[in-house]
Amino acid sequence: MTRPAGRALATAALAVLLAGCGGGAGNTGNDVAASDRPGTTAPPAPTGAKSARPLERSVPVGLRIPAVGVDTPVMRLGLAADGTVQVPPVTDDDRAGWYRHSPTPGQVGPSVLLGHVTVGTHGDGVFRHLARLHRGDRIETRLENGAAAEFTVTAVRTVRKAEFPTDDVYGDVNRPELRLITCGGPRVGEEYRDNVIVFAALSATRPAPS
How many separate domains does the chain show? Predict the structure, then answer.
């Protein structure tokens, strides 16, 4: 799928992206849309960040974020039967999920990974500390073909779900970037009011074994 088509699918699907973030086992999630800064571009890479050549397409299988203690397998996520974005299941072995209609990590464009902040009665989710990341922190992705892509955080934003910045997250960019998304802000019952979004740019790669 081309990036413009992926963007269109994402825009259509955002009606229910990560509304509950695993707040309860019966949650189906149904909250997100729009943009709080229409037409804006992703933040620039940190000063002094390394540039790296884009990688070939290969599905992510692992994610590591040393600053917040994340080291998780990555599952594939698509669209549910009603056309909404899938989220990882609420289980005790919570893991991150890659939205398969986005580029794979290291390809040109925004690669999107989702994760829960809580997983119902199971407790903390894999992205429970995502909001603690800072500009310059490292994010490492492991790919199915043995390659790896390292990203540097450029920005961390907390936005109301009703003001979700669709264009900033899914819109086309001219370099490999990463988006990590979870819930945050005040919790009311089983739901969280906000989304936490981490923006990152590719800074290093390790090619697949020959």
Answer: 1
